[in-house]
Specification:
The protein is an alpha/beta fold. The chain has twelve helices and twelve strands. The protein has one domain: Divalent-metal-dependent TIM barrel enzymes (TIM Barrel, Alpha-Beta Barrel), CATH 3.20.20.150.
Length: 348
């Protein structure tokens, strides 16, 4: 296991030195954030990220993410050009030592919450999703936490209109088309593609979601058999879907050699209607058995990248929602303990 930490580049409020001080931290997960989707990443920007990380004693081997253009997801006539650009970006990140690319194929919104600062019983705050609050959202006048600056009102409505023509099956076909073009490049460059599950794992605003459960994963891996076509096992995203058995997922897809990256975080289910909030990483803080999930990863030979995922704001920190320092550092320490214990049991 290689423990990593999400870092948003030079504009991140968390210095690399602080990340380096977390025990057993091997590297950062980052990306080039100032280039529009569908354009080539400057090699100079990638080299700078690598140099900054290396100078702080950290590796840069995971990109999260190279975004997939909405035109690729929609299957528009310009998708071949955009996929060619994507392939060039794969070659460029590989040239500076990246081994794994986390990406997603979610239409329009690659995550959705109704509250960015849900107040927990212990006084911390975290991201949450309330089914009742979601029902109050007007699809024709969307104002969503974390997304109001991403699209203008007209851009958003036009995108939603375009997706009305895209079924689940069509979106899946477009994903397979994309992967059939990029996976040969990954084979050539020794890079793994690790798809991130839908967050949350159900349709929103009638937008199709196609990576939400075991059936979806089995369909994807059958359609594109190369193990370069793999998974980011995000326990929080899959875990918001109460029918998803994360212990089984960890066992099954690790055995298949599909789990290239793991986002470890916990969620607490609320009520009966898919509501949840993001809790502390420790199993008893939420609804997921984090210890058993890690046990299945280790027992079945996982040797990829792991990072603590969304943390709460604790100790008075007013950090970027989900990406403060303190709770993710606590999560990293908890992850270290789980992996050390199980590796001593199963890797004698």
């Amino acid at each position: 296991m290689k423990l990593t930490f999400r870092w948003f580049g030079k504009k991140d409020s968390i210095p690399l030195q602080y990340i380096r001080e977390i025990p057993n931290m091997s590297g950062v997960v980052s990306a080039v954030y100032d280039v529009p989707v569908g354009e080539v990443w400057p090699i100079e920007s990638l080299k700078e990220l690598k140099e900054l990380a290396n100078n702080s004693g950290l590796e840069f081997e995971v990109v999260e993410s190279i975004p997939v253009s909405e035109d690729i997801k929609l299957g528009k006539p310009n998708r071949d050009h955009l996929i060619d650009v994507y392939c060039e970006n794969i070659r460029r990140v590989a040239s500076i030592g990246v081994k794994c690319i986390c990406y997603n194929f979610m239409p329009v919104f690659d995550w959705l919450r109704t509250n960015m600062k849900h107040v927990n019983e212990d006084g911390s705050n975290s991201l949450s999703y309330s089914y009742e609050e979601f029902l109050q959202v007007d699809p024709n006048n969307l104002h969503l936490p974390g997304w109001d600056e991403s699209y203008s009102k007209d851009e958003l409505q036009n995108l939603l209109k375009e997706y009305k023509k895209i079924s689940h099956d069509k979106l899946f076909q477009n994903l397979v088309y994309f992967l059939n073009k990029v996976i040969p490049v990954c084979e050539e460059c020794n890079v793994n593609m690790a798809i991130h599950p839908d967050d949350p794992p159900w349709d929103v605003f009638n937008l199709p979601r196609i990576i939400s459960n075991q059936k979806d994963l089995d369909k994807l891996f059958k359609a594109v058999p190369s193990t370069r076509n793999g998974l980011t096992l995000c326990t929080g995203s899959f875990g918001a879907g109460r029918e998803n058995d994360l212990i089984k997922f960890a066992r099954k897809y690790t055995k298949q050699g599909r789990v290239h990256f793991v986002h470890l975080r916990n969620v607490k289910w609320v009520g009966e209607n898919n509501s949840f909030y993001e809790s502390g990483h420790y199993s008893n803080c939420g609804s997921l058995d984090m210890a058993r999930i890690v046990e299945e990863l280790v027992k079945n030979g996982f040797n990829g990248y792991v990072r603590p995922d969304h943390g709460r704001n604790i100790f008075g920190e007013d950090g970027k929602p989900g990406y403060g320092l303190y709770d993710r550092a606590l999560g990293a320490t908890y992850i270290n303990g789980l992996f050390e214990a199980y590796e001593k049991i199963y890797k004698k």
